[in-house]
Amino acid sequence: MITATIRSDQPVVLKSIAEIPFSRGFGVYDNHPEQYVVTDASAFLEMINTDRGRAKGEQYICAPCAIASSDARHRSMFSSSIGKAHRCSSCIQPCYWLGFDIDSSMTPRSFETLKEYLRHSKANGVIYTTSSHTPERPRCRIILILDRMLNRADRIQATIAMRARIDSALLMVGCDAVGWDRSCDRPEQPLFLPLRGSHLEFLEGRPLTAEELLVEGAIIADAGKDDARHNIRSIANRLECGAGNHPTMVSAVAKLVRAGLGDAAIHAAMQVEAWSRDMPDIEVQRAIDGARAKLGSGEWTPPSMQASPDDFSIIGGLPGVPEPLRRSTPPPTPYPLDALGEVLQPAAEAIRRVIQAPDAIIGGALLAATSLAVQAQADVHIDGRVLPLSLWLLSVADSGERKSAVDAEAMRAAREHEEALHLAYSFEIELHAADMSEWEAKRDAAKSEAKKAKGEGLADKMRILGPPPTIPLLPRVTAADFTAEGLFKLLSVGVPGIGAFTDEAALVFGGHGMAKETVMRTAGTLCKLWDNGTLDRVRSGDGALKLYGRRLALHLLAQPVIAEAALSDAVLAGQGFLARCLLAWPEGTAGGRTYRPEALRDDPAMQRLKTTLLERHRLPLPLAMGERQTLQPRALGLVDGAKAAWIELHDAVEVGMRPNGQYAQVKPWASKTPEQALRIAGVLALLADAGATTIDNATMERGIKLARWYLDEALRIAGSADLSPVVRDADALLHWLHSSGRKFVYSQVVLQYGPIRIRERSAFQRAIGELVRAGWALPVEGGMLLDGAQRRQVWRITGPEVI
Prior knowledge:
Number of strands: 26
């Protein structure tokens, strides 16, 4: 929100240094923008977030502008601007911020790395997408706050230096430098504000130090070349090595000369280093000649020289084979899509063809969506046991594996059904309001009449009037975030069968319901709901309340870091919440996908899926006599052959839970597997036939096949998740080092760009210590030159190829 407007015929006068002046115009041809001042940086950034355009090329900001004077330049070129705030190089005023526009050469990985760098460099500003942005070809603008105002020339210099910093960060992790619109270096250049559909992220750090940027900008300007790699080398050489001198390079070459390498081998080795890669061969040759001369004359003895990465490439790898940090996780077995049946299998194959997500993510999403559609209709009955058809699933995949896209397709029928319920509810609630008004008027009249008779006859009148009109049920079919209290409230005022579905499981595991103080109550509440559809609550205010005949389907799609924390949570495991979930953690497909120009909505298999699930959602609810929320699902039995197959599964799993048995380490999941098989089979039976009363042999076999797969998956991943925090951090660090191809590492680069979980010095020290003890890292005595600076503590990393 703009808090103060300065008239265009008045100069900008700041009340204090905290105030931020700027120009705000409309359209690229607006050279007389209005002048504004806001109270502080927070107000400035909030204005950027709220002042959004409807189309490309509307609102823009630039540095504040002075009133154009009647000088020779304005008289000859801009006579119409005299007396107005004029956007030109001579009228532009100092400002508190830098603006950047990235309009080409941006990959999705570069974009994510850019955002990560800005977050963890603790900058203060915003980054937002532009009108031409797509996920495949990201485009964005950045606004960063300075700690003091800069005039035009200094602002240009500071902007160039900040671009060099960002390019350095991207190049350091193997990303290409981005395509800057360098016209935005000039403070008078319009920087267009975000559109209404733009994604904007606040950077909640501190202002950039202007003096540091000006020093770096001066070095780049002195080098006379505004190129990303050249900027990195120029700054490193001037700040660390001294102008025109490369002692660290000569030191490294001297060691290679003493090792007996020829000139050609030394040239090849020196190309590995970032600080020598762009240098002409003649410079390297001069270093070789100088080192040979000094060594030959005895003027220079190598033992005190600084280490170089090339020394290690000549000497070889670390001694011995490192010890594993954790037991190796075997690859998952293929997900049995063929067991999903004639409705779900073709839909799963269509989603796999177009979205190209992992099969287990697709299969789990379809099973969960189907469970939501049919769970209210029937329960499996077997030898006196009654088992609801609610399925719970926890599916794990990295960001970029298209979990959200799969969930959207699987839940299309549920969302459409929920929208229809909302429309009906809006009509019903209006009728209820009218009925309630009439009832209240009759009640008030009855009370008024009874008052005249000193209350006589009021009870009879109220009995004749009857209870107030029943309020319509809340039309919520799904919930993304929940607590025990929230679920109780929703199921007490809404439909009796709902689903907890989210593609961001952090909302659940990181929310209030799973906080340390409430996780036990939430887990216990959910487990009762899965077991028999009951919920109870005891409060001092409204006493003890209990709900019967409720159903909850659940599908949580989580990223690995969230899943690891949940799977290692003692309360969630001890209460049985996790054991009731069908686990899946498939290998990703990202990186091997090609675009498919198909619309899944037009696919016959997807249309059939949506039609079938909508029909199941719209079936009348089987309610207990005189109730409108208590479900009384019909019995779903097993034919003889199906029951025999299920008993065989039950007994085989029971044997596997013996000490040293196949499933001894995952007893909680194994003990639930026979019931999971019945639930899955019941869901598939009602999908195939809405009026089914038995589970046939083929359907039971498919339920068993799927339940066995989920048990094997739990066995595969459950043990891997139960690791100490130090080992988990060390494993994450080693994976990052190997995936980024780093042979050497120092603390600063990990704290800035490494895994988020170890971006604290203490966590990094523990993790690298674990890698040293296991033989994956070797300290480099005396440190070495890396990324243009001498690093005091450096570790050499053993690559994955040794094992």
